[in-house]
Amino acid sequence: MTETERGCPYSHVDFGLDTEIYGHYALLDGHREESRFHFNDTTRRGFYMLQRYDDVLEGFQRHETWTTHVRSALNPEPGTALLPQDLNGEAHAKLRRVLNPFFAPAAVKRMTPMAHERCVELIEELRPKGSCDFVAEFAIRYPTDLFLALLGLPVSDGEFFLPWSETLFAGFFGGDPAAAAAAKANIIAYFTEAVRERRANLRDPREDMVSRLVEARIDGEPISEQDILTICMTLMLAGLDTTRSALGYIYTHLARHEEDRRAIVADPGLIPAAVEEFVRLYPLVIQAGREVQEDGEFHGLDLRRGDVMWLGIGSANRDPRKFPEPDRFVLGRKGVNQHLAFGAGPHRCLGMHLARLELAVVLKEWHERIPDYRIKEGTTLVERGGQLTLKTLPLEWEV
Ligand code: HEM
């Protein structure tokens, strides 16, 4: 039986390619309105695209039979191990119970003073210059420093940690594989040393994450050293690039929409609502992958064990059936927090409260100090495909 006979038109669109900014949203909007499902044949295994809000949400809820054996529809082959992502069912729930306390609202609140302090330091470093590449000089540095603090590691290590993590990210998106492998080895050695140090000098496991991982028991067994290292690596991979990307889209928007910028400058109390609407409007994890574990059916779509699913976060967040005038930034939009930017179901983003904190702190501290800025004239903004991020965002302001 051919795929078309299974009830789905073909799509040949490669969502992994770089485009001019917002190019991916335009492609996704077109797809969603053309037909409900598509079979996309641009990867070796191909994948079925769920695109409407209700379908994508239901896809996340089918977690018992649609698993993270495939994490990204675009890269369905098993790659770097990730925890907790790679686990499903009870094993996943048990590890989440160990990790959740560190990412719960109360824990994130504990980080707030430090988050403000570090943010102000970085802004003050840039402010006298009157310009910066916001992506490289701020948007990636800030989450890296907070990530190190979260793990209980010295923020000053960002100086050498950041170039390693950047080289590793670049490797996932076509960069030099040998350099990426060397960077990965450095990062693993760095985490290994942190774990060794905590084993020798355990700190308060309620406040120190590496100590908690060293001391935790699941079914009476300690978490293996290998898994602790994988968890640290996962948090780095999941938390840095995403926050950088969100900041890039938010600052592009604010530089281009003076009225929205003025609104949050005049009333910083609007910032939490603005963050939520930004995260809805500019979803950067445009899809989560899943692998179907048993033959079945999805609203008339015939599915087989092993099929790869694209849960289209980028389409769902901009689905007019759910969010009227979806392409507009609407401060105080009703029901905005039902967006799927952080996923849904058991794999919902572990770091979402931290991400919200980071974005809100940056918006507050930056606009207090640099309320007016513009994108350097003549700049063409390019977004990296796959998981969206702006390659560069040159900003200028008066000093
Ligand atoms: C704006 C920023 C962020 C966005 C848009 C985002 C988005 C997402 C999405 C969509 C998922 C679900 C993937 C799936 O269901 O397959 C996810 C999972 C995850 N995120 Fe985030 N994320 C962000 C920031 C962070 C941060 C700051 C951290 C931690 C430092 C983090 C850690 C994780 C982890 C560990 C998972 C896997 C959860 C699991 O499988 O149980 N994320 N994120």
Explain this structure.
49% of the residues lie in helices and 12% in strands. The chain is an alpha+beta fold. Strands 1-3-4-12-9-5 form a six-stranded mixed β-sheet, with helices on one face. A three-stranded antiparallel β-sheet has the order 2-14-15. Strands 6-16-13 form a three-stranded antiparallel β-sheet. It starts with 9 loop residues before the first strand and ends with a strand. The site of protoporphyrin IX containing FE has 27 residues, from helix 11 and helix 15.
Structural topology:
Layout: E1 10-11, E2 19-20, H1 23-34, E3 37-40, E4 47-50, H2 53-61, E5 66-67, H3 89-103, H4 105-110, H5 112-126, E6 131-133, H6 134-139, H7 141-151, H8 158-172, H9 177-200, H10 209-215, E7 217-218, E8 221-222, H11 225-256, H12 258-266, H13 271-281, E9 288-292, E10 296-298, E11 301-303, E12 308-311, H14 313-316, H15 352-369, E13 374-375, E14 382-384, E15 389-390, E16 394-396
Parallel strand pairs: 1-3, 4-12
Antiparallel strand pairs: 2-14, 3-4, 5-9, 6-16, 7-8, 9-12, 10-11, 13-16, 14-15
The structure holds protoporphyrin IX containing FE.
